[in-house]
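Fold this sequence, please.
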Amino acid sequence: MPDHDTRAYDTYDRLIALLDTSSVDYKLIDHEPEGTTEAVSALRGHSTSEAAKCIVLRVKVDRRTTRHVLAVVPGDRRVDLDAVRTLFAARYVGFSDAGTAERLARAVPGTVLPFSFDTELEVVADPAVVTRPRLYFNAARLDRSLCLSGADYERTARPRVEAIAAPVPE
């Protein structure tokens, strides 16, 4: 078994406990370690549109106020930074630095969950995520994924649902 960051294991255990106590029907999928949406979707055997792509963003509302947002979009789309900027009436929106993203998501890159266990990290999910019959994502580990319905995801994660996805440029 690969060596894992203990924070990832803690996040994994917390996720499973949340899903079990919420009576969510989910499936665990073990696979080769992989963190990119396209490659892990192929390993799991589904289209990238069924994957949850999770990106930690830094949102500068004004000179003194910075918020952190976990943007969740379908795997075949990208985060529309302008839509997020408009949503928060922000001056600037960009990708969070790796250290901040790991600290807030409590997971290493490629394993970020579409859930937040940190009050500083607000989850915003695109409507296309919560309407999926099946939603796949790495379960805070590179070698294990999870599948559940978009409705169960919405019920347990309680994201703010807003249109934040855009097509990937050709």
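The beta strands are 27-30, 52-60, 66-74, 77-79, 92-95, 121-125, 135-141, 144-148, 160-161, 165-167. The first helix runs from residue 6 to 21.
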